[in-house]
Amino acid sequence: MFTLGSVLDNELKSTVEDFSFETNFSTNQLMLPNIEKPFEFAQSIIGLEKDLQENENQLMFHQQKKEERKERALIKGYKGTTTLAFIYEKGTVIAVDSRATSGQYIASQSVQKVVPINSYMLGTLAGGAADCQFFLAHLGRICNLYELRNNETISVAAASKLLNNILYSYRNYGLSVGSMICGYDTRGPQLYYIDSDGSRLKNSLFSVGSGSPFAYGVLDAGYRWDLSKEEALDLGRRAICAATFKDSYSGGTIKVYHIDENGWVKISDDDASELWYEYEKKEKKEKK
Amino acid sequence: MAGKNCVAIAGDTRFGVRNQTVALDSNRIFKINNRTLFGMTGLNTDILTLRESFKFQMNLYNLEEEREISPKTFAHNVAQTLYSKRFGPYFITPIIAGLEGEDYTPFLCATDLIGAMEFPKSFVVAGTGEESLMGVCETFYKENMEPDELFEVISQCLLAAVDRDALSGWGSVVHVLTKDGITTKRLRTRKD
């Protein structure tokens, strides 16, 4: 349904001012089906559980339409996740789980939810996996082109703004992207939250996904600006572990990344369940 | 699952509300008498209500009949209780497992929420992960298993299936019923 060809063509056609208004706000970057109301069609084939449930009330007197919609739900979203990121004195910490669920079926326990944009920026994946993967890879391409043309590294603020503008032009098309752009640039460690609804928020800590309330509990309790690197990594790991325990739709393995002035590094990759048992054992020892 | 003169029931012990896990120790498998085990999945409040209701009915049966109920009769009792609420059902899926008669023949029964009974010879499954369970049991089941082997097989089936279901896990329990009694074991499962 979507092809890369049309996207790249637009890139190559762009003029010296490569971030011109027309290129970025063009709604013809991705191919749309050749029918009368593509926007309505795009919405109707999304089969995300959330959307089906939300519309259940509206369609209460139109049972037939609801059944139709369920049958036509060709795109089944793999949702359910916990991702978090926070910045502190020495850099940025990102921690994610690795489970993808389709309804209550666990589709995979080994999803890569952190996508590298370039050597000092990472993006996280939450919501629709395909949407996030494509747009983050696309952002990586744009950032690379920027660096080649302008001979300087792109700032996290600019990169997140670019993605934000692209996603805003696809607002209401049924995309589901809840990504955090994290990096280290001349301004220090930076963290932005980008949404498919068009929001772009800057903060020092975020957690995204079905397990985010549980992660926030641990994260908010332990967060300080002047954490040491060990403490910060441990905090991120513990927060995701708590979320995988409490939230059924999060789990698998817990991956922790760290970004500082030298770029991003993958710190650890632990099984969520084993980590929980370890923490339990440690607590019992401490109580004694 | 049924074996040679033995049956086993296994279940997880999670109690959750949609995606949130609330308790890790909710037991849904109950002993009716030395010959019958009864497990339920579904709406927790209905499970608790029916546990009390069947306990009451069995106590009354014991007093009136002056004997223990057989698994087959109990299964029919369950079906009748569920059908009595045909137009406002209990939202549960019960499983009855027991040893019938002098020869301790294995007996399995599953019903739907309004009491339609089914008596398979090999295994019964219920719950949010029932599709996964069905697949795994079909693969690993074989006839005439001894109690030890039955325990291994049913444990592996449960662990494999709950790992593919987001809403199951967080602890599990396995009961094996033979003519010598019931052995109960808890398995270490994934807690994510």
UniProtKB/TrEMBL annotation, chain A:
One matching Pfam family: Proteasome
Reactions that this protein is recorded to catalyse: Cleavage of peptide bonds with very broad specificity
InterPro entries: Ntn_hydrolases_N (IPR029055), Pept_T1A_subB (IPR000243), Proteasome_bsu_CS (IPR016050), Proteasome_sua/b (IPR001353), Proteasome_suB-type (IPR023333)
UniProt KW keywords: Coiled coil, Cytoplasm, Hydrolase, Nucleus, Protease, Proteasome, Threonine protease, Zymogen
Family that this chain belongs to: Belongs to the peptidase T1B family.
Role, per record: Component of the proteasome, a multicatalytic proteinase complex which is characterized by its ability to cleave peptides with Arg, Phe, Tyr, Leu, and Glu adjacent to the leaving group at neutral or slightly basic pH. The proteasome has an ATP-dependent proteolytic activity.
Protein name as catalogued: Proteasome subunit beta
Organism expressing this protein natively: Anaeramoeba flamelloides
Upper taxonomic lineage: Eukaryota, Metamonada, Anaeramoebidae, Anaeramoeba
TrEMBL record, chain B:
InterPro entries per record: Ntn_hydrolases_N (IPR029055), Proteasome_beta_3 (IPR033811), Proteasome_sua/b (IPR001353), Proteasome_suB-type (IPR023333)
Predominant place of localization: nucleus
Source species of the chain: Anaeramoeba flamelloides
Xref: PANTHER family: METALLOPROTEASE TLDD (PTHR32194), PROTEASOME SUBUNIT BETA TYPE-3 (PTHR32194:SF10)
GO-annotated biological processes: proteasome-mediated ubiquitin-dependent protein catabolic process
UniProt keywords, alphabetically: Cytoplasm, Nucleus, Proteasome
Protein name: Proteasome subunit beta type-3
One GO cellular component term: nucleus
CDD domains on file: proteasome_beta_type_3
